[in-house]
Amino acid sequence: MTEHLPAIDILSDRDAVASRAAGVIIDGVVSRRVRTLGLATGGTMVQLYARLVAAFRLGEVSFENVTTFNLDDYVGVPSTAPGSFRAFMRRYFIDLVDIDPARAHMPDGMASDIATEAVRYETLIRQTGGIDLQLLGIGSNGHIGFNEPGSDFGSRTREIRLTDETRTANAPFFVQGAEVPHRAVTMGLGTILEANEILLVAMGAHKAEAIAAAISGPISIMCPASALRRHPRVRIICDEAAASQIEGRVASRIRGIS
Ligand code: GLP
To answer: What is the pLDDT of residue 252?
Structure first.
């Protein structure tokens, strides 16, 4: 199978990363190359959404004609709970721009039957014509969406059990003392790899190991983000701290071009 080296932008700090990543999305939307946008949550995305909202307020971009599909959400967490990804998306993006809320899709972790919900979500993505640009963060264990290590590269939207590492990393989004859910519904790696273009954003030294494994380690289900090397149009935008452990052939190639 062909292996692709993602394009990598290594920038000095978080602000530069958020601005450049937002710029990629804005260019795509303004040029109408991106009509369907895959969205992500997490601390990394807060700054990025702030840039998109600022650009919207300046009249530089409109999301009126954009359809969005979020990667994932917890199972059994109502949208009123602060840790819910629905709440996150409303707080940082959907309620702050001109997107039609009816076109801002998320998998429903409150559905009574998650398997049926997963099929509904996959069907909706397909009927919309697929995702033009998928935005991704990365977990410190290399997860993308909530595809934890061990996820099949061909996996589709489904329910998944979260690792303790992921639950601990996401605890700050929940009210102190509240239990972080054990289960989530996530687009699969196969679903993500069907996007036309992929943009992965990472900030901070705690992501360095995952970024190194994703782009310079073995392509393996033990690092879900390494699946991105099976896709020809992936761009990674990260800060120097997150890029600090990239090794070998890939590191010299990056040094050669930067
Ligand atoms: C969650 C999300 C991922 C995201 C990850 C990293 O686990 N499901 O999509 O990439 O968090 O989040 P952060 O940006 O907070 O480090």
So the answer is: 77
> Could you identify the residue written with the tokens 């398997």?
115
The one-letter amino acid at 114: I
CA-CA distance, 52 to 129, in Å (whole number)? 24
Residue 89: HSE in the Cβ half-sphere, 13 Å Cα cutoff = 22
How far is the centre of ligand 1, averaged over its atoms, from the C-alpha of 139 (Å)? 5
Least confident of 27-31, 173-177, 205-209, 238-242: 173-177
Is pTM, for the whole model, over 0.90? yes
What count of other Cβ atoms lies within 10 Å of the Cβ of residue 1?
6
Residue numbers annotated as active site = 72, 141, 143, 148
Residue 125: pLDDT band by 50, 70, 90 thresholds? very high
Best residue among 14, 17, 44 to mutate for probing ligand 1, ranked by most atoms within 8 Å of CB:
44
Give the containing element (helix H, strand E) for 185: strand 183-186
Structure tokens at 9: 């932008």
